[in-house]
Amino acid sequence: MKKFFIIVIFVGLLFVTIVFGFKKYGLYVISNKINTIVLSKEGNDFKRKLLPKAETGFATPEDGKDYRIFNHNQAWFEQQITEGRVERWTQRTSETYYIGKGSSAKAMTHPITLNAYFLKNTTETNKTVIIAHGFGLSGDKYGAWGKMYYDLGYNVLLPDARAHGKSEGNYISFGLQEKDDYTNKQGWIEQVIEKIGPDSEIYLHGGSMGAATMMMVAGEAVPANVKLLIEDCGYADLNIPFRHLKGTILSKLEGQNGAYKFKRNLAGLNLNVPIDEQDINYLFDRFLHVFNERYELTENDRDVLASVSAVQAMNTTALPVLFIHGQSDTLVPFKETTETLINSKQSNRNNARYEEYFPANANHGAAIKVDYETYKSKIQAFIAHHTQLIGEQQ
User: Fold this and answer.
1) What's the rounded Cα separation, in Å, for the pair 185 and 191?
2) How many CB atoms lie within 10 A of CB 362?
3) Mean pLDDT for the chain?
4) What pTM was estimated for this model as a whole?
5) Residue 52's closest CA among 329, 371, 361?
């Protein structure tokens, strides 16, 4: 009998070890998969499945009353590409990241080529809008915005961000390195000036990650040709959307008695392993740790996301800014984000002029579809007003 109990205890301990070891290993595998999806080009196909339809190209009737206009404009732009009316611009630059950590970390720098789509307006103009797309997408998927600006009489340049679309690069840095692709000597801004002319007027527009990137661009020393910025649902810093995402996951846990069930079959045993708050914290901490090591931002992982900061750039920009953000945004929360960005005007050292357009029923990236004509007219009026002011000052 004693031997029997010893065997039972041994088997029980072995089972517990297997279960918890399986769980720990499973979480490690999951974290690596999440990091691949979020931080590298490899995960872009999966990203698109998770994004709101307003950003991914075509939409459905339920997404907004002007979905037909949006769909038509997107299809029109893609047709221009097919028929060869859209030029392909390229940029040679480099990608830098670190392998290892601390004093032993090694900087890895690789040359990469970036891609962009340029549509010259049939009406001769020196005015060009550069549009930065959202996370996991590409310039050609922002064709609906491109058509809108084309109809307003502007040339349009839609770059593929590094590690997106047809651009090379392995990793995504959420604007940290992407901003340099606009401001460097071979960057998109300088290319517009070189190809369109020294009297070029350049307007920046970005959506989501592209909006945050363009805000960071606006905080740099840009040429006088750059006149203004239109940002649509960008994050103030990465802490806000990631904290919101983490809170959403944890609230769902509460609705399931505090745990997800991670069901797997292991050697004929059906395991039902709970994933709790501590496990979710582990997944997020692993993400921060990987991002931190790759770009050597800070020794404190929890401050990493604040280093990718659009709000810091808004403290220094001299450009007029139109902030667009749907009040029903469930990805980049409206209230916290817009309050942070709008309040940055109080610290802005250049007294930049801010305007706002916050449609009530628009989710993330959907303001253009909730009311297309209002979206278009707000932008048109903003450009007309501020380019007139700039002309008077000159």
Assistant:
1) 9
2) 27
3) 82
4) 0.85
5) 329
